[in-house]
Amino acid sequence: MAKIKHHNFLNTVHEVFTDAKQEGVLHLYAEGNSFSGRKIKVKNRNLFHFGTTGYLGLEQDQRLKKAAIRAIENYGTQFPLSKSYISNPLYKELEELITQMYQAPIIITKNSTLGHIGVIPSAVDDDDVIILDHQVHWSVQNAAKMLKTRSVPIEMIRHNNLEMLEDKLKKYTHSKKHIWYMADGIYSMYGDFAPVNNLMELGKQYPQLRFYFDDVHGMSWVGKNGTGYVLSQLGELPSNVLLFGTLSKTFGASGALLACSDIELYKKIKTFGGPLTFSAQLEPASVAAAIASAKIHLSKDIYGLQDELKERIDCFNEFLAKTDLPLIDHNESPVFYIGTGMPKTGYNFVNRLMKEGFYVNLGIFPAVPVKNTGVRITISRHNQKEEIKALVAAMEYHYPKALAETRTTPERVFHAFNLQPKVLSEKVLNVDLQIEIKETIGAVDKKLWNNLMKGQGVYDWDGLNFLENVFQDNNRKEYNWAFRYVFIKDENEKIILATFLTHALWKDDMLAKEKVSLAIEVERNEDPYHLTSMVVSMGSLFTEGDHLYWDGKHPKAKGAMNTLIRLLEDLQLDLDAKMIVLRDFERETPWHRNLQGNGFIRVQMPDTCMVDLKGVVNLQDFLSKLSSRNRKHYRKDIRPYLEKVNVKLVKKATSSEIVQIKKLYGNVHDNNQGLNTFSFPEKLFDHMNQHSLWEFIMVRPSEQLETLIGVMLCYKNSGQVYVPAFIGMDYAYRNDFSTYRLLLLMTIERAIALGFSKIDMGMTASFEKKKLGAQVIKKYAYLQTADNYTLELLGIMEGQ
């Protein structure tokens, strides 16, 4: 299979957010002339507010409001000058109060995102290494990535996986000055905690280990003086910990803070920390509000506020415990996450709750994996017991309805989060549709299959029979594929949908940049299966083209679509696959909205190429129909080389030629880390040589007829389509003989001679193929992954 283009993260986020916006759950505007914190007006509805991150409600405290108003009256709306020159008159008092809270030197930043960008590049040296928790906040990851330009290695571990962390520590303990582990104190989506005490024990074993905690969601509602979760576990701030807190969210004002007890490191960061030097300082109103809040934090009042919030958290937990709702993490934080699994179920559930009078947040990609969509509920002091109870009742009532309306089940949701369902339910399938699955093409009627697939690639009946023989009973697991042939029919046995699937081992970096694959291949010298996963895919790694027959005009076409999606997910579960891949869609496909709502993300594949030979009599006729520019290309870049080579069509190669063909194919495979797949079993070429529908176009130098320098491995699909499936080349001769271009030309000539009306030129090298008359068609794939870890790990590696 040709390589899928490098995943454009921003495009995917844009598509997911646009979908959520169209569903009315994202990019909303609050309405009204005032705001109390208890209720929020959205779409002309007054809703109880369960989406705030102001857990203690201090943003509505009169002491903060009055302080902010006085500051504006005394100092204006802003103090437009860099803090490096002079801070506004209120800053000194704020810094003194925050220092008193933390009992450690502090630095005030405009916000946490700018703070991370300022602190991390200053704190981390060139001979250090960074290890990121997979779920550490985006702002930390983004700031860490800046260190790639200084060649600082960045690693990633699965969330809270201390075994993985220790493996990384052992890897770097003898080569790096400091090993930085970066994590959240409280994670913003699920509300779970970092294992702070266990991490400190690791710090004792590995003296180079330093910690960078983003504890903005742990601030104020827990800990002495409201200094947050991390410090509540540490007691006091060690020199090997950098701790980020916030002056916004629960603190009620604006800005962020860094606490650092390492005096030399503190001076280094404060003296010059990028945005800490050049960005604008906090407005006087924000500083004054923060001062008022700091005074509350330094008084006994903070503990009364914490106790009031804890009562509400306990109340919510008590009500939830009586339900079967899938709470993803049971803890004592004010953040709760109810999993819905698929985005469309999340949209439905959020809208239902809004109609009932409750505002909650939707947790969606990239904050969580697409299939880990859910509802994030935050509890604050504004919430009263009666509305907390009413929210739980509304969720208990509407959750099963949201599942049913989006044709999903509790099992599907619980599986997405690796949880065990409390209640088993019937599988939601379309009872009006029949599913037929065959495990071998031999069990499928040949005429029926060929009629459905219309001769598009190496997957007519004979082609698939060939592939089954090649990719079974091999001695390595990557060479053994399981095939499934799927038919979805209506009550009258009419086929609405048909496709074939493979279950095979893929390299995770197949979608990554070449330099990432090169780095991973070094690791594979020790572990051949490092970063590999079993994948359920429509089509296979050997085939290209539209692998799907779908009667979109059938009245039950959408039902068949949903049935296939559920079938794929059941197969993924049964076969323990990590990813589902649906391939070769055009951009404007009616499948898009439904696939995205079911947890698939769209990525662009390389353009595919097709040559139309209808009405073409011979090669000269074909060339005469090219554009003047492309005819010039032929005359200049191809024709002069025809006299230098011997071209031979071979239907059955000699044993020595097969040896050469294997070597030439191996050259192309090994030279193309941009398409990093496992090689194919050696018996593939022997089977090709014995098969009547495979043939080889061979190129040799006219003066070295014993030397094979290029070969095109071609398949004749049902007498309809010519498929140059793979190529082999000796790169030492490529430029001197224009080998690739000659093979393309000879492929076209051979297809014309056979009387075929079409050549499926496949993907990659579309520029060269276009110059020989190929039509270029954009194609897309849809991926559904078990989690984001591998994709994000590869994303981290791409910048190094």
Automatic annotation (TrEMBL):
Coiled coil: none
Domain BioF2-like acetyltransferase: residue ranges: 629-767
Superkingdom assignment: Bacteria
GO molecular function: pyridoxal phosphate binding; transaminase activity
InterPro entries, A to Z: Acyl_CoA_acyltransferase (IPR016181), Aminotransferase_I/II_large (IPR004839), AON_synthase_class-II (IPR050087), BioF2-like_GNAT_dom (IPR038740), PyrdxlP-dep_Trfase (IPR015424), PyrdxlP-dep_Trfase_major (IPR015421), PyrdxlP-dep_Trfase_small (IPR015422)
Swiss-Prot/TrEMBL keywords: Aminotransferase, Transferase
Sequence ranges assigned to domain Aminotransferase class I/classII large in this UniProt record: 49-392
Pfam families, per the entry: Acetyltransf_6 (PF13480), Aminotran_1_2 (PF00155)
Entry annotated with the keyword S-adenosyl-L-methionine: no
Necessary cofactors: pyridoxal 5'-phosphate
Protein name: Aminotransferase class I/II-fold pyridoxal phosphate-dependent enzyme
Source organism per UniProt: Maribacter luteus
